[in-house]
Specification:
about 55% strand; eight-stranded antiparallel β-barrel; about 190 residues; mainly beta
Length: about 190
């Protein structure tokens, strides 16, 4: 009987608080919960460098590659992104100066986003260099951690190996092309 009386008292107190809240103009409902991620959609231009080890030559060889680039962004996510710096590294990256079959390099990277207010946030991304056709590489992956976690990542990058064709043939004993320029776009979402 005592627990029933306590339950009624609690119910009356809840009604009294709700009535007081409504009279004060406060909304009545469940407590606020964390909002879902914004409608993600960020696309960025990028220009930078791609470094190869042991060096790209005429015949396809497995490479370790590091990519660094930066550029401006178009932000449809509502976050307020102005620009981005992309840094990534790939292992078992099959590449050649003349033709490149399915590249297959896997790796990871970091995107440092600069916001409109000048502050920065990061995304850690798992990536796979899917293919290269006529010196344009396609990379896919997903954001593993940080802002946009769980979202997809894609990039299309043009690699300037034709400028280094001499290095590929004459420089083969020296290791071939080790550094080349890269331009393109990448996007999240």
């Amino acid at each position: 009987m005592k627990s029933r009386t306590l339950a009624k008292a609690a119910h009356r107190a809840t009604l009294a608080l709700a009535t007081t809240g409504l009279a004060a103009g406060l909304p009545l409902g469940a407590p606020a919960v964390a909002q879902a991620a914004p409608n993600v959609g960020v696309s960025c231009s990028t220009a930078g460098q791609l470094h190869f080890e042991p060096g790209v030559q005429i015949i396809p060889l497995r490479q370790q590659a590091t990519l660094s680039g930066e550029g401006s962004c178009t932000d449809n996510s509502g976050v307020g992104i102005r620009s981005a710096k992309l840094s990534s590294a790939y292992q078992n990256f099959l590449f050649s100066c003349v033709t490149t079959p399915s590249s297959g390099g896997t790796g990871s990277g970091t995107i440092e986003w600069t916001l409109d207010d000048g502050s920065t946030v990061t995304s850690n991304v798992d990536m796979k260099w899917d293919r290269t056709v006529l010196n344009t590489g396609h990379i896919s992956g997903h954001v593993r951690q940080g802002i946009f976690a769980g979202e997809g990542f894609t990039a299309d990058l043009k690699v300037s190996l034709f400028q280094g064709l001499g290095e590929c043939t004459i420089g083969a004993p020296m290791g071939g092309v080790k550094d080349t320029g890269v331009t393109g776009t990448f996007s999240i979402g």
